[in-house]
TrEMBL record:
<protein>
    <submittedName>
        <fullName>L-2-hydroxycarboxylate dehydrogenase (NAD+)</fullName>
        <ecNumber>1.1.1.337</ecNumber>
    </submittedName>
</protein>
<feature type="region of interest" description="Disordered">
    <location>
        <begin position="206"/>
        <end position="225"/>
    </location>
</feature>
<dbReference type="InterPro" id="IPR043144">
    <property type="entry name" value="Mal/L-sulf/L-lact_DH-like_ah"/>
</dbReference>
<dbReference type="InterPro" id="IPR043143">
    <property type="entry name" value="Mal/L-sulf/L-lact_DH-like_NADP"/>
</dbReference>
<dbReference type="InterPro" id="IPR003767">
    <property type="entry name" value="Malate/L-lactate_DH-like"/>
</dbReference>
<dbReference type="InterPro" id="IPR036111">
    <property type="entry name" value="Mal/L-sulfo/L-lacto_DH-like_sf"/>
</dbReference>
<dbReference type="Pfam" id="PF02615">
    <property type="entry name" value="Ldh_2"/>
</dbReference>
<comment type="similarity">
    <text>Belongs to the LDH2/MDH2 oxidoreductase family.</text>
</comment>
<keyword id="KW-0560">Oxidoreductase</keyword>
<dbReference type="GO" id="GO:0102443">
    <property type="term" value="F:L-2-hydroxycarboxylate dehydrogenase (NAD+) activity"/>
</dbReference>
Length: 369
């Protein structure tokens, strides 16, 4: 499948224009464009600008009755009795803007206290958690985030009704000196993300087995027939997804089946919330160092030795790769192309967005990769 090269400046201008057309501030629009550039640069098609704007249309500013995201909203930073932990009320501000600010705040606490935590209530989905921890790892930190996904789209293990989000976990490790890029362990707790279903539908592809069910609860590989997703690894993925719901519950998140579905709130329970929750944790590597590394190695050399042992012993020759390696390879392709790579089908959707917001964009000027 051939790709077209979308110049970064042109891509970001279109994305920012699309967000500002929907009422977002110039700063929010720039943060959204920054995030969308990040996803495209690293080949994350499931959470690129198209997914972000589609999500905003369905559940964010596009929901005229009860918008899940409010352009121009301000973050309220609540009083905390813990020096290395902050609690925020995002007031349904754009998720990408909140997430960038939150992880940077956690980094500042980690510089001072060794660790920093930011919990966010009343949020709107931040999309690809791996992007935030990757950025943080590049700045030298061990970073983690999880969130409750925008919708309950996943059936619990041995269940039939979707009561869980795709609920991602994302870790980033500063391993650039050892292998040239940060290790980023980032996964949805469903077999596939709903963004992947949308991508496969767009590209006319078939889903992997045991990744989704239709409206009758039967397994399906047809992205057009997907009603709900299945957790990966059976009970293991279910447990990891449940972690996000529990953390969200401790933060202040409400019932998973009502998230982004205010119209489903039962009569008499109008106080239920319908917003996601975020959790960020950043660790300074020095804060976890015991100092007693074998054979006279320092921390960096020790981490490198561990990685080499894991992928050694013939494993690389057999196909083993490290988490984050595919994204690194995609970044090299973007760098080689001198821009962001998109399929013709994706560019056609960008053209629709440009027409919607009155932004000048001619796909014919884009070059083939």
């Amino acid at each position: 499948m051939s790709n077209l090269i979308f110049p970064i400046e042109s891509h970001n201008a279109l994305v920012a224009a699309a967000y500002q057309h929907r009422g977002y501030t110039a700063d929010e629009a720039q943060q959204a464009a920054r995030f969308s550039q990040l996803t495209a640069w690293y080949g994350i098609k499931t959470h690129n600008a198209l997914k972000a704007l589609h999500l905003d249309h369905l559940f964010g500013s596009g929901n005229e009755t009860n918008p899940g995201c409010v352009p121009g909203a301000e973050i309220e930073k609540l009083p905390s009795r813990f020096a290395a932990a902050e609690q925020w009320n995002a007031n349904r501000k754009l998720g990408q803007a909140v997430a960038f600010e939150a992880i940077e705040a956690a980094e500042k606490m980690a510089d001072q206290y060794g660790v920093g935590i930011v919990s966010v209530d009343y949020a709107f989905h931040y999309l690809w958690g791996g992007g935030y921890v990757m950025d943080s790892a590049k700045r030298g930190y061990i970073a983690y985030t999880n969130c409750t996904a925008a919708l309950a789209e996943v059936v619990p293990f041995m269940g039939k009704h979707p009561t869980l989000g795709t609920n991602p976990h994302s870790w980033g490790f500063p391993t650039q000196d050892a292998i040239g890029y940060p290790i980023v362990i980032d996964w949805a707790t469903s077999t596939v993300a709903m963004g992947r279903v949308q991508q496969f539908k767009r590209e006319g592809l078939t889903l992997p087995p045991d990744s989704a069910v239709d409206k009758d609860g039967n397994p399906t590989q047809d992205p057009n027939q997907v009603h709900a997703l299945q957790p990966f690894g059976r009970h293991k993925g279910y447990g990891l997804s449940l972690i996000n719901e529990l953390v969200g519950g401790f933060i202040g998140g409400s019932l998973p089946t009502l998230r982004s579905r205010p119209e489903d709130i039962p009569a008499g329970t109008e106080g239920e919330k319908t917003t996601p929750s975020f959790y960020f944790q950043v660790i300074h590597p020095d804060a976890v160092s015991g100092g007693a590394f074998a054979c006279g190695r320092d921390q960096a050399a020790n981490v490198k030795a561990v990685i080499e042992d894991v992928v050694g012993h013939g494993n690389v020759d057999n196909g083993t790769i490290l988490p984050g390696e595919l994204e690194y390879r995609a970044s090299l392709e973007s760098e080689k192309a001198g821009g962001l790579l998109f399929t013709e089908a994706e560019i056609a959707e960008f053209k629709e967005l440009a027409d919607e917001c009155g932004h000048d964009f001619d796909p014919k000027i884009l070059k083939n990769a």
